[in-house]
Every structure is written in C-alpha cells, then in structure tokens.
Amino acid sequence: MRKLIMFLSLLWLAGCAALPGLGASQAADSLMREAQQLAPRVAKGELTRVQVADRLDALRQQQVGRNAVDDDLFRTYRRIAQQRDAGQIDSARAQRLMEDRLQLWQRRWPALPDKPAQPAFAQFLFKLYGLPPLGATP
What we know:
Elements (H helix, E strand, L loop, with lengths): L1 H11 L11 H20 L5 H16 L3 H18 L5 H18 L11 H9 L10
C-alpha cells in the first residue's frame, strides 16, 4: 500500500508533454502518459515537484489554454508540491489535500455558471485519483 501511495504521489507531481489543439480528454491522457514517464526523475531527485508542476502548468496551457477550474486546481497542486519539497507534509497528507480540493470542484461543478469546455488539468487529476470526471454523478 505504501508503494502505491508513493507511486501515485510521484505521478501527480510529475509533468506532461504537449500536443497542441487537444480536447480535454486527449489532453488529460497526454498528461497522464507524461506523468508516468517523469515520475522516475522526481524519485531520483533530478526534478523537484515544483519544477515539474511549473512545467505541467505551462504545457497544460499550451494544450488547452487557461480556465478558472484548471487554474484553481493548479494553484493547489503547486502549493502542495512546494510543501512536499520543503518536507512540510508527507505523501499521505498531500494526497488528502488534493483529493479534498478535487471533491470540492466535483460538488461545485453542477451549479457552475460558466463551465470551461476543456478542463484538461482537472480531468487528469480526477483520473489519477480514480475519481469520476467532472460532470459525472459520483
């Protein structure tokens, strides 16, 4: 179980490669593939979680642009990455914090007046955590 938590933590703190013009689902899949490739570099200490988070943000913007949902989730993701890099929180706490934020957006989504068309970063995180995608009934 500890290995699974560590692997998931590394995955969600990894980065992504960009393919311009992707839809949210394709972009989320692209993020997941690249996260799997970069996780070993984080584990080896070649990249910090914050460096990878910043790379991920730039590339998600390149893939699908910005939106309020992805921007908020990225800010949370980066703050957690900073805390992990500084040794302020462990992987289990980081996972709980991110899951809490994702669940908040899942609750907000039905009443959100201006839903973004391509919340790729959000969908990537929901997929990573095994949660239903935005708009799905939990």
